[in-house]
Write a structure and sequence with these properties.
This protein has six helices and eight strands. By secondary structure, it is of the alpha+beta class. It has two domains: 5-42; 46-219, Chalcone isomerase. A six-stranded antiparallel β-sheet has the order 3-4-5-6-7-8. Strand 6 and strand 7 form a beta hairpin. Helix 2 (109-122) packs antiparallel against helix 3 and helix 2 packs across helix 5 (197-206). The longest helix is centred in the first third of the chain and has 28 residues, at 15-42.
Length: 223
């Protein structure tokens, strides 16, 4: 036998009814917990992608700006900048950046690397700031023909290159110690001054020292 409990309203409340009421509360709690965690499980790491979607919006990225680079009468490439916030720069460590270049003319891998080095030097980088990336770029980048698209996706402390939407290689943001072969003073300077590769690369266009300030303004959405 059990003793029935009486509520303030005077109605009898049995242990069975209390159990049912508690079960409803428990079920409701777990449903709320599942709803709050569902999103975090549904969104994969950007670096787990092997293929870029056709639209950056699929990755919840927003366009910041776009610009076309031309020399005299020749169009060289069209570029676009996307970020998870729709702005640049952003100090959020979870910030994702996608930089796309659609080439309008052919360019060999060797020329592409040479032009990249020239622009790094233009914005003030020293050889020890980028030397350790060159072998990786040589291994990753292909020869370009008009219509090809080369994209850099920056996130999760890595930078991944995509060629015509397909991943072709990933560069660790910071090189491992012992990469350099210079003297100890240069080694120290290299480690102190080394920027993440993603920033080092897009600084060619977005640094205040860029050789193309008008393109920078357009990419930042400041036409």
């Amino acid at each position: 036998m059990f003793r029935a409990k009486t509520s303030k309203s005077g109605a009898l409340r049995t242990p069975i009814l209390e159990v049912r009421s508690n079960m409803r509360l428990i079920i409701a709690f777990f449903l709320l917990l599942l709803a709050s965690t569902k999103t975090s499980y549904a969104i994969p790491s950007v670096q787990s992608l092997d293929q870029l979607p056709e639209s950056a919006q699929t990755l919840s990225l927003k366009e910041v700006g776009s610009a076309k680079f031309s020399v005299l009468f020749w169009d060289i490439y069209q570029s676009k900048l996307f970020t998870s916030s729709g702005s640049f720069p952003n100090e959020d460590k979870e910030h994702v950046v996608l930089f796309e270049i659609e080439y309008l003319r052919d360019i060999s891998k060797g020329d592409l690397i040479d032009r990249t080095i020239e622009q790094w030097q233009h914005i003030g980088l020293k050889e020890y700031d980028y030397q350790h990336y060159l072998a990786q770029l040589e291994a990753i980048w292909p020869d370009i023909v008009a219509g090809d698209k080369l994209s850099l996706l920056i996130g999760d402390n890595k930078s991944s290159f995509f060629f015509n939407q397909r991943k072709i290689g990933t560069i660790l943001e910071k090189p491992p110690s012992g990469t350099y072969q210079e003297n100890s003073v240069k080694l120290s300077n290299a480690r102190e001054n080394n920027s993440a590769f993603g920033k080092t690369f897009i600084d060619i266009w977005l640094s205040e020292k860029t050789s193309q300030p008008k393109l920078r303004q357009q990419l930042l959405g400041k036409r």
